[in-house]
Amino acid sequence: MKLAELFSFVFLSAAALGALADPAVPSVERQKETCVIKASGTNATDDGPVIREAFQNCGHHGRVVFEATTYYVNSVLDIRDLEDVDIDIYGKLLWSTNIQYWLNHSLPVGYQNQSTAFILGGNNLRIDGHNTGTFDGNGDYWYSFISEQPVHSDFPGRPHAPTLNGLTNSVVKGLNFLRSQMWTLSMIYCHHVELNDIFVNNTGNSVQSSNTDGADTIRSSFIKFDNWTVYNGDDSISLKGNSTDISITNSHFYRGLGIALGSIGQYKGEFETLERLYVDNIYFENTDHAVYFKTWTGDQNGFPPNGGGGGLGFAADMNFTNMHVSALRASAVAFSQCTTFLRRTRKLHQLAFHIRDITVTGIQSTSNSPRVASLQCSAVAPCDNIALSEIDVTLSNGTQISQYLCGNVEDPRGFSCTRAAGEC
């Protein structure tokens, strides 16, 4: 059967037919069409080709529909340069378990030598999962495979689930992500994008998942995360190099590390920033932290993704408010400017990356850690204008916690340091 016969083109009916006869209607509107993708129905047949063909035919001023069925994705998808498209996902996209194929064919993300199984990009896209659309990475196979490798963190070729690359002026909503292969949703060169009503569950059925971030922003701006629910084994949401004007609101995070700023400073001599983050009304349960900054050390040891350091830049102008936290595993607020994959480094706290102008207001928390905050900042660029207030953290037995560990923190506001050293 030919590829063209595996999906149907559904033209706009009465209105479209009238438009074709009316020369006053713009030609783009007259020609707008819908591609309904027909799944093969078997994992022995790759649905990647019909998915790619649908976007080729309806990727400009059109509509692409995934029906309420399972699509077997056995090959990489690189779908970019879309314009003014409605993408409706009612069914499930299920990635194959052919690990060797993905290790050898996954696509470069463009950051940290990472790779991905699916690139999607364009302008003015409206992606709607209608709360049923699902991306299933078959991650249990990956979690088992990675657990047996000498490098667990970033195994070369292990792909992210979908990567939004160059997505602008768009809305993504109502999607579910299950057992992602690695990072769930990475975003690079994306601007003015809203991501609403997203559910992520990367809980492994037999082996605990690792490095399964809920979302990561890279070289992106004006990104809004609202009403996310994330169960995972790493950063709940992470901002990486040159992420600016980001908001995270009305969300629930479980089992991961919390909201992460970084890691950053991984590229020697490269200047990167994290600026203007707004976080409000967040619920954390059984996470390491609520707020977590992590930068690399001052000297370069190895190369990304499993090494680096010596970067430049700053993180500034961030506000965290109204956070409700239960069963923290470590300090509620953590700054760790000492990330390295080596046990020893000559410049543990010497990174010239500056953290400043950070305000955290209103944390209600129970914790398994005796520390409210652990701030280990750079000795050559100490943290300043750090304000922590209205923070109420208790142990599970009700004992109030009051420890604030500070290394290279200048003029703290709203709190007093109880020890002159933070943790790495």
TrEMBL record:
Its main location: secreted. Keywords: Cell wall biogenesis/degradation, Glycoprotein, Glycosidase, Hydrolase, Secreted, Signal. SUPFAM superfamilies: Pectin lyase-like. GO terms for biological process: carbohydrate metabolic process; cell wall organization. GO terms for molecular function: polygalacturonase activity. GO terms for cellular component: extracellular region. It is found in: Secreted. InterPro entries: Glyco_hydro_28, Pectin_lyas_fold, Pectin_lyase_fold/virulence. Residues 1-21 form the signal peptide. Coiled coil: none annotated. Pfam families: Glyco_hydro_28 (PF00295). The keyword Ribosomal protein does not apply. This is Galacturan 1,4-alpha-galacturonidase B. It comes from Favolaschia claudopus.
